[in-house]
Amino acid sequence: MKGATTRSARSGGTRTWWRRIREPLAQSGFVKSFIAGLFAWFVRLIRVTSPLVKGSTQVAGGAYAHLEPGIIALWHGQHLLTPAYYPKGRPLVAMVSRSADAELQALMIEKFGIEAVRGSGGRENARHLDKGGAKALIALKKALTAGKNVAMIADIPHGTPRDAGLGIVLLARLSGRPILPAAITTSRRKVLERSWDKTTINLPFGRSAVVVGTPVFVPADAGEEEMERKRREVTDSLNAATAEAYRLVDGDK
């Protein structure tokens, strides 16, 4: 009985100790940079140990060079490998959520030489972007004007997964640049079924696939009905690219 009491006291003491240091650790720039470095190392390991399967889009060879600078569209929960698979030597600016949880992601992609813009452009009504989202879209438009590719999550945070919002369509209309729906996956992966977006944790030592879907062009004079049609085009093209990427790595499973 005494032993159980002692273990309980130790457990309670450990929890109290962890609560005391958790917040300072979360605010530590060194700790956050270290964790982001571990994430970067892990996605590099996946890239090195997961060769691309036949049928993958040859983005490194410049197959889409004539469409650059372009807007790379990705789904929430399916985008984590992008920094490791993006071709070296090509400037890329990526929109990352302003949430605290996304800060590590911003730090991680910067370790690949990718510039992070904080904001959220996935609101359902593109005319009512909040201040941060509007600033982020302006920054992405400037990057495209400067000849840089940009990457943006197409679906709305905590909305309907794998259903594009109007934010990315608005950016295409304002910039005149095409949307390039892209999917990256691996044969070895763990899907977090309880997460709203079915977040995929990719694992090393398997096969990988990159698929770029049918580009979507948005006219500068697109009205509300046309914007909605283009939003559906992005959704369909990105879902088709995702399904093809899974088919390539999973074979006949």
Features:
253 residues; alpha/beta; two-stranded antiparallel ribbon; 7 helices; 8 strands
Describe the structure in your own words:
It is built from 7 helices and 8 strands; from the N terminus they run ααβαβαβαβαββββα. It is of the alpha/beta class and 253 residues long. It has a single domain (29-250), classed as Glycerol-3-phosphate (1)-acyltransferase (3-Layer(aba) Sandwich). The strands form 2 sheets. The chain has a 6-stranded mixed β-sheet with strand order 3-2-4-1-5-8, with helices on both faces. The chain has a two-stranded antiparallel sheet with strand order 6-7. The model is unreliable at 122-128 (pLDDT under 50).
The CATH topology corresponds to Glycerol-3-phosphate (1)-acyltransferase
**What would you call the shape?**
globular
| End-to-end separation | 53 Å
Question: How much β-strand is present in the residues?
Answer: 5-15%
For the sheet with most strands, the description reads: 6 strands, mixed
Judged by helices, strands and strand pairing, the structural class is alpha/beta
- Separate helix tally: 7
State the CATH architecture: 3-Layer(aba) Sandwich
Helix percentage: 40-55%
Global mean pLDDT: 86
**Count of discrete structural domains:** 1
Tell me the series of helices and strands, N- to C-terminal.
HHEHEHEHEHEEEEH
> Unreliable runs, pLDDT <50, ≥5 residues?
122-128
The CATH homologous superfamily: Glycerol-3-phosphate (1)-acyltransferase
Strands, total number: 8
Radius of gyration: 20 Å
Largest sheet, spatial ordering of strands: 3-2-4-1-5-8
CATH class descriptor: Alpha Beta
